[in-house]
Specification:
By secondary structure, this protein is α/β, with parallel strands linked by helices. A seven-stranded mixed sheet has the order 16-18-19-14-13-21-22, sandwiched between helices. A six-stranded mixed sheet has the order 10-9-8-11-12-24, sandwiched between helices. Strand 18, helix 13 and strand 19 form a beta-alpha-beta unit. The longest helix is centred in the first third of the chain and has 19 residues. The radius of gyration is 25 Å and the shape is globular. The structure holds nicotinamide-adenine-dinucleotide. The site of nicotinamide-adenine-dinucleotide has 27 residues, from helix 8.
C-alpha cells in the first residue's frame, strides 16, 4: 500500500501547509484504501485565507470588466482542456463513474461560460430627466470576500455554481470543499492561477466544522454560499445571518417522480433507473420516491426491475454504470435503511446487498435497491437516504400524488411523466417544489436560469447562478445626479419632489 498523499490548502496563489495539526483520511471508495490525508484548517489558517482574500478583493473589484472576462475565458479553456484530469481526481475520491465525473465538470463549465457574459449581466438602468436635468441610474457593486462551502457529492460542479459568478462580479472567494473529496478544488485553484487570476482572489481552505464556523463568524466575510444537508444548511443560514452576512444555504432533498396512468412507461422506467441510481443516488436531484398513480405500479415496477438487472456496479474507472458509495460509514448507513424498510413492511423487490461488484472487495459497495408498497410513514420514505434506494409509493389519483409531494418538507426537484399536457401544466403550477421536470428526470436548470429548491431544500431568498446568482454576489446602488443648472438651485427644505 502506498503512503497517503498530503492534501493541503491553497492560499494567496500557492499551496499552503497550514498551521493546524489536524488532518482527515481521504479514501478511494472503490478500494476502501486511504489514499490521502487532508489538512483540516484551524482558525489561524482560515484567517490567513480571509486576509489574503480581503486584500485582493479591493483591487479586483476595481479591475476592468475586460480584464475579468479575459481571465474567465482563459479559465474556461484550461478547465475544458483538463476536465479529464479533474474527472479522474473526482472518481478517485468520490467513487462516481468517470463519465459522470467528467459530466459534472462539463455542467460546471456552463456556469463559467455564463459568467463570461458578466459585462452584460452587470449592466444597470438609466432614466434621464426624472426631474428637470436630474438623471437616475443603478449600478451593482461587489461585496468583498465571499465564502463558498460545498458538499462531497459534486466536488467540481457545486463550487463552479458560485465561484465563476462571484469572481466575475468582482469578489474574492474562499472555498471550503468537503473533506471527503478535496483534490478537485486544488486542481481548479491551479487553473485559476494559470489563467492569470491575481493571488488571493481564489483560495481553498480544507477543513471541517472548525473552518466553517470561523468563516461564519469572520467579520471580513460578507456573504456565504452553502450547499449540503438540511440540518447544516439551516445552521449555516442562522449563524451566518446572525453575524450580519448575506447567506444562501441549499439543503437536502427527497425528490418525487409522479407517473400518471397515460405515461409512456418505457420512458418512465428508463428515467426512474437513471435518476434513482446515477451516481449511486448521491445527487441532490436524484429521484428517491416514485409515485405510481392508478394502475401503473405493477407494469412500471416490472420494467424497472428488468432494467436494474442490466446495471453493472463497480469501480468507476472500469466503464461500469454505478460506482461505490463515498465512505464505508455512509454505505453502512444506507444499507441500514434496507432492514428498516423490510421491518416497516415495505416489499423489497431488489436487494442491493445481493448485488455483484466489478471492483476490489474492500470497496464501499451497495448495488441498486428497489422497494415497492412503501408507506409515507416509513423511514425509507421520510428520510433523505442519499444512496441507490428507490421507493415506490402507490396512490389512486393525481390529487393524492400532489398532496403527497406538497406535504413533504423538502422541495428541491420533482418530475411528472404523462402524455396529458393539461395534467402536466396543472402539476407545474400546483406543485410546491423549486425545479420541475415534465417527462424529464433530474431537471437541473441551465446555468442562465437559477438552481434552487423550496422549503427545507433552501434557506435564504436567492438561488444559485443565473441572474439570481449575480444579484446574490452584488449590491445594488442607485445614483441620482444633477449637473449644475443655476436656474434649478435655491433653498427648499421640503422633501425632494419631481418637477
Ligand atoms: P454535509 O451537510 O455533511 O456537508 C456539507 C458541508 O458542510 C461540507 O463542506 C462539510 O465539511 C460541512 N459540514 C459538515 N458538518 C458540519 C457541521 N456540523 N458544521 C459546519 N459545517 C459542517 O453534506 P454532504 O454529506 O457533504 O453532502 C450531501 C448533502 O448535500 C445531501 O443532503 C444533499 O442533498 C445535499 N446537496 C444539496 C444540493 C442542493 O442543491 N440543494 C446539492 C448537492 C448536495
Amino acid at each position: 500500500m502506498s503512503t497517503p498523499t498530503r492534501i493541503t490548502h491553497w492560499i494567496d496563489g500557492k499551496a499552503f501547509g497550514g498551521t493546524s495539526e489536524r488532518a482527515a483520511d481521504v479514501f478511494n471508495p472503490a478500494t476502501g484504501q486511504v489514499t490521502g490525508r487532508v489538512d483540516l484548517a484551524d482558525d489561524a489558517t482560515v484567517d490567513l485565507a480571509v486576509a489574503a482574500a480581503a486584500s485582493a478583493a479591493e483591487s479586483w473589484a476595481h479591475s476592468s470588466l475586460s480584464t475579468r472576462t479575459k481571465i474567465l475565458f482563459k479559465f474556461r479553456e484550461l478547465l475544458n482542456e483538463r476536465k479529464d484530469e479533474v474527472g479522474a481526481a473526482i472518481t478517485a475520491e468520490h467513487g462516481k463513474v468517470l463519465s459522470d465525473a467528467v459530466g459534472e465538470v462539463t455542467r460546471g463549465l456552463e456556469v463559467v461560460e455564463f459568467a463570461c457574459g458578466i459585462p452584460h449581466l452587470l449592466k444597470g438602468g438609466f432614466s434621464e430627466n426624472v426631474s428637470t436635468r436630474v438623471d437616475v441610474y443603478s449600478i451593482r457593486q461587489a461585496l468583498g470576500v465571499v465564502a463558498v462551502i460545498s458538499p462531497f457529492n459534486f466536488p467540481a460542479m457545486v463550487p463552479l455554481w458560485f465561484v465563476p459568478v462571484t469572481i466575475a462580479a468582482g469578489n474574492a472567494v474562499v472555498l471550503k470543499p468537503s473533506e471527503k473529496d478535496p483534490s478537485a478544488s486544488l486542481l481548479m485553484a491551479q487553473l485559476w492561477a494559470e489563467a492569470g487570476l491575481p493571488n488571493g482572489v481564489f483560495s481553498v481552505v480544507q477543513g471541517d466544522k472548525v473552518a466553517v464556523d470561523r468563516l461564519l463568524e469572520h467579520p471580513d466575510v460578507a456573504a456565504v454560499s452553502f450547499v449540503g444537508s438540511t440540518p447544516i444548511a439551516r445552521y449555516v443560514y442562522e449563524k451566518g445571518t446572525a453575524a450580519g452576512k448575506r447567506v444562501q444555504a441549499l439543503g437536502g432533498a427527497k425528490n418525487h417522480m409522479v407517473v400518471l396512468p397515460d405515461a409512456d412507461l418505457d420512458l418512465a422506467a428508463d428515467a426512474a433507473v437513471n435518476a434513482g441510481f446515477g451516481s449511486a443516488g448521491e445527487r441532490c436531484m436524484a429521484i428517491s420516491a416514485l409515485v405510481a398513480v392508478g394502475d401503473v405500479a405493477d407494469p412500471l415496477v416490472a420494467k424497472i426491475r428488468e432494467r436494474m438487472a442490466t446495471l453493472r456496479t463497480g469501480d468507476g474507472t472500469r466503464g461500469c454504470d454505478m460506482g461505490p458509495l463515498v465512505t464505508g460509514a455512509h454505505r453502512d448507513k444506507v444499507a441500514s435503511y434496507l432492514d428498516a424498510g423490510v421491518e416497516a413492511g415495505a416489499e423489497l423487490v431488489v436487494d442491493g446487498r445481493d448485488g455483484e461488484f466489478d471492483g476490489d472487495d474492500g470497496g464501499f459497495w451497495l448495488a441498486p435497491t428497489l422497494f415497492d408498497k412503501v408507506d409515507p410513514s416509513m423511514s425509507i420514505y421520510t428520510d433523505e437516504i442519499f444512496g441507490p434506494v428507490l421507493s415506490v409509493v402507490r396512490v389512486d389519483t393525481y390529487d393524492q400524488a400532489l398532496e403527497l409531494v406538497n406535504a413533504n418538507p423538502y422541495g428541491n426537484g420533482t418530475a411528472i411523466f404523462t402524455n396529458d399536457g393539461g395534467a402536466a401544466r396543472r402539476y407545474q403550477n400546483e406543485v410546491q417544489v423549486g425545479m420541475v421536470g415534465i417527462n424529464v428526470p433530474i431537471p437541473v436548470p441551465m446555468s442562465y436560469y437559477s438552481f434552487g429548491g423550496w422549503k427545507n431544500s433552501l434557506f435564504g431568498d436567492t438561488h444559485a447562478h443565473g441572474i439570481e446568482g449575480v444579484h446574490f454576489f452584488t449590491r445594488g446602488k442607485v445614483v441620482t445626479s444633477r449637473w449644475l443648472d443655476p436656474s434649478h438651485g435655491g433653498l427648499n427644505l421640503g422633501f425632494p419632489q419631481n418637477a
